[in-house]
Amino acid sequence: MSALARRSWLAVAALAMLAVIGAIGVSGHWPGTATLSRAVPDGVLPWAGEASEIGISAGERFVTLRREAGAWRVEGAGEAENAGEAGSAVAEHVAAGLRFLAVSAPLRRLGAEEARGLAQFGLDPPQFTLALQTPRGPATIAFGAETPAQTAHYVRVAGREGIVLLPRHAAAEWQAVLDLTARAGAAEEAGGARGGPMLLPVLIAHVAVVELFADGRPSRFERDGTGLWFHHVGQHVHLGPADAHRADPAQAAAIAQELAALEQTVAEPVAVQKEGGGTQGNDALDAETLARDGLETPALILLLYSRDDPRPLAGIEFGATAAGGETYARRRGTGRVVTVPARALAHLRALLRIANGA
């Protein structure tokens, strides 16, 4: 075939393809086939987004969330000093959790015969239960154990036969809600006279990845398949061609110890002096104040992630040393500045030493 003939053939083929694309755009279907259908919610509860109230029960804990003026609010959290900060984070996870219920189709369905004996699926009792109030009526969804492969949860919907398997990210959002509300309540109890928030808004048990940036240099800690911690560079081995990791038990125990200590740290809110005397909140600090507290360009940043979400569950920046020996810190996404005990920095430095092989 000559060069001219080849170019002519390519031009004809391109025109034919453009014609097909144009036909699809006008008719919505391939020539001679049925129309293409639009994607529609196909989750376990397609109308979950219409919920106006949600009750979450886990053991003896019960959390009620209500939609007010289009925004989700934790019942009883209005008077807490850090309610606005916690409430904003809770609302994000509630919105994501409802979306997943609406669009996450079951990975598998177990019929009544297969689903005999709820206890073996972690559903008697369940890990937690959602009770949604919607214009179409109430809906109750119980989340059980993870599957052996840890990719899904066993889930039972009240009024329906059998059990379905939902991707684990559908449960992770509600676990984050439970964590955030529990930690806010724990702060009020643990703070006592200080009345400060817990430094970490989530439990380490529900964190899968920790990133620590010291002067811009990252150190990353992850869990292996058995849940043990490892430093992602140089402190683990790959098993065969798969992307699997095996943590060193001694290193894992050392990392877990430092993270567990951070989990128990209580912070102290910083009051800012107003002109003419008195104090005010610090939700809108100016650049001069942030620079003074070492938070305009923090030397240390801590990020916490769940297994399935690229968004951090929490981000905390650490700045300069305060007059009493504490360290200024600020949780990302808020303007609130707190001070944390010097021992909190000691735990972070210990993690850095592990990352450096010391």
Structure characterization notes:
With 358 residues, the chain is of the alpha+beta class. It folds into 2 domains: 134 residues, Immunoglobulin-like (Sandwich), CATH 2.60.40; 157 residues, no CATH class. It has 6 helices and 20 strands. Strands 3-2-1-5-6-7-8-4 form an 8-stranded antiparallel β-sheet, with helices on one face. An 8-stranded antiparallel β-sheet has the order 11-10-9-17-18-19-20-14. A hairpin with a 5-residue loop joins strand 6 and strand 7. The termini are far apart.
How many H/I helices? 6
**Class per helix and strand makeup:** alpha+beta
Instruction: Show unreliable segments.
Output: 20-40, 78-84, 187-195, 273-283
Q: What sort of overall outline do the alpha carbons produce when their principal axes are compared?
A: globular
- Cα-to-Cα separation, first versus last residue: 68 Å
The profile of the biggest β sheet is: 8 strands, antiparallel
How large is the radius of gyration?
26 Å
Estimate the helix proportion, in percent: 25-40%
**Share of residues in strands:** 25-35%
User: What order do the SSEs take from the amino end to the carboxyl end, as H and E?
Assistant: HEEEHEEEEEHEEEEEHEEEHEEEEH
Strand order of the largest sheet: 3-2-1-5-6-7-8-4
Counting structural domains, the number is: 2
Number of strands: 20
Mean pLDDT: 80
